[in-house]
Design goal:
The chain is α+β, with helices and mostly antiparallel strands. It folds into two domains: 223 residues; 210 residues, Glucose Permease (Domain IIA) (Distorted Sandwich), CATH 2.70.70.10. Strands 1, 2, 4, 5, 6, 8, 10 and 11 form an eight-stranded antiparallel β-sheet that branches. Strand 4 and strand 5 form a beta hairpin. Helix 2 runs parallel beside helix 5 and helix 7 packs across helix 8. It is elongated and about 95 Å long.
Length: 453
Amino acid sequence: MQSARDTSSSLGTACRGQRISISLSLALLSAAVMNLSPAVSQTAPPAPAVSPEAIKQREQELEAARAQQKRATELQQKLQADIAAIGQDRSKLNQQLIDIAGQVRGVETRISDAELRLGPLDTREAQIRSSLDSRRSEIVEVLAALQRAGRRTPPALLVRPEDALQSLRTAMLLGAVVPELRGRAESLTNDLGELVALRKTIAAERDKMAADRDRLKDDQTRLAALVNERQRQQSAIEKDMEAESARAVALAKQVDSLQGLIAKMELDLKSAAKAAAAASLQGAPAAPGGKPNTGALRDPARTSPAVAFASAKGLFAYPVNGIKIRDFGGSDGAGGVEKGISLAAKAGAQVTTPCDGWVVYAGPFRSYGQLLILNAGGGYHVLIAGMERISVSIGQFVLTGEPVAIMGKTSQVASILATTASQPVLYVEFRKDGTPIDPGPWWAANEGEKVRG
């Protein structure tokens, strides 16, 4: 009899231990399920058609719109004050243009990096959601089993040996079932926990990206105002600038090749000829000791290239943030070879100059879309094509990193690439004495080597 009581006591303790373990697993899994979206939940209460919360939300949206309008007004007033302070100081205007353009491209880079990080996170979230959704019945089954087991009290062990035997069989059954339930519960809990952590990470990334987008919009507004002021001042200097631009477009229709276009521009257009003459005289300054003097790039008042093009190898940054999709010398998809490089960019991306130079052409040219040609001195020309809008004029001297154009929403150079790419594509070509050359040696290997204005 005493032995039966001892057996009963030990089995009761074992069953209570199993019950505690089940209760813990149930609590853990239930807590995790609370964080799951309605995709795994059983039911979701319908939202009322009209509620105080909805009214409050509309009021908050209205307040946010008013705050945004106020911020835009304040920004406009600050821009006007900044432009008034700059006045006719060309060096200050140039420096502000280069600084803001650099900020814009920096924010564009951060947004692109955030999008790259979000891609795998979104994919993993979708995988976990799909897995949990496919195991919806398993979740319900495990929860129900844990709830039943958690409510079940240890069997009443009396003094009869039969009671002790029944209790022993029950304990053995629970010992076989509980580990399996616990394993399934822990597996589900781990997935749910990962989903919750992923959501927090994704939310944080999206918040940072939203803040960067707001900053990008402000910087673009500021940049547009400064570009307009630059061109206004340029127009005051070149009274016949519009006539020159119209004549350039007419001349472009008379030639078939880029080499012919460059020659005709520098021969027939007063502003382009002036730029070409200045380039031949000042476009290739000596580099002390054979090394480029990059310190001269910090002078925003310069009117000639700070670094000789030939000695600037390994220093240039791409004109736009993007991915290289065609390289010099590769197949152009039409039986020929590429004479430049092609960069896939984002819609509305900022285009800046890779080097100092004089604008000898700015306008549409055949299948190149909007084309910009810079005379960099020393017989070198830089061709940039595929933009939607160019913001500089023929005859103008531009500095390294200065904003000169904006990408559109679709490709403007599809015929060059022999493709129907829908994304914006920027085409860049370097020429020496009219012949295309490999631009590869001029591009910086990393961010720290790129020249800045």
